[in-house]
Amino acid sequence: MKSALCMIAGCTLSLVAASVSVPEAAAELFLGMLGPLVAAVTTTVLFERTYRRDPGELTPLMIKAFGAKMVLFGSYVGAVVTFTALSPIPFALSFCASFIALHLTEALVLRSLFAEAHS
Predict the structure, then answer these.
(1) What range does the domain containing 26 cover?
(2) Long-range contacts for 71-79 (Cβ within 8 Å, ≥24 apart)?
(3) CA atoms of 98 and 69, how far apart (whole Å)
(4) What digits encode the pLDDT tens for the residues 63-95?
């Protein structure tokens, strides 16, 4: 849970900094960050709980989460680009940067879980 709070705090700080730098794209930056943040926080909490309860269930959960993320991210990006009047370039840049940073964070959380188990 601590890692999820760190993700939220990091995204909030980077959103504030980006919005101050480029105020005309604040909505695009927010929506670009929102989808990856919700997905990363949800899966991180699920991964941590599952691993602590039954480590053998983590891999099947990760496979299901991967499939769900593919569908949800495709739908999310398509909906934002199609149904809003926002500029797609700042949205796409924010989405990609958030996606990469948050998935790297998820990988580091998993690495720390595995390291705890082997210590």
Answers:
(1) 2-117
(2) 72/35, 72/39, 73/35, 73/36, 73/39, 73/99, 76/35, 77/35
(3) 14
(4) 999 999 999 999 999 999 999 999 999 999 999
Q: What percent of the chain has pLDDT over 70?
A: 99
pLDDT digits over 11-28, tens only?
999 999 999 999 999 999
Helix, strand, or coil (residue 66): helix
Q: How many domains, the chain?
A: 1
Going by C-alpha positions, the residue among 69, 14, 3, 5 that lies closest to residue 36 is 69
| Cα 46 from Cα 50, distance rounded (Å) | 6
pTM confidence score: 0.92
Distance CA 99, CA 7 (A): 12
Q: Could you list the beta-strand ranges (E) of the chain.
A: none
Residue 26 C-alpha from the chain's centroid: 18
For residues 8, 13, 17 and 20, what is the CA-based torsion angle, rounded to 10 degrees?
80
Structure tokens at 28: 């695009």
Six-digit token string for 89 = 């370039």
Does 34 score more than 90 pLDDT? yes
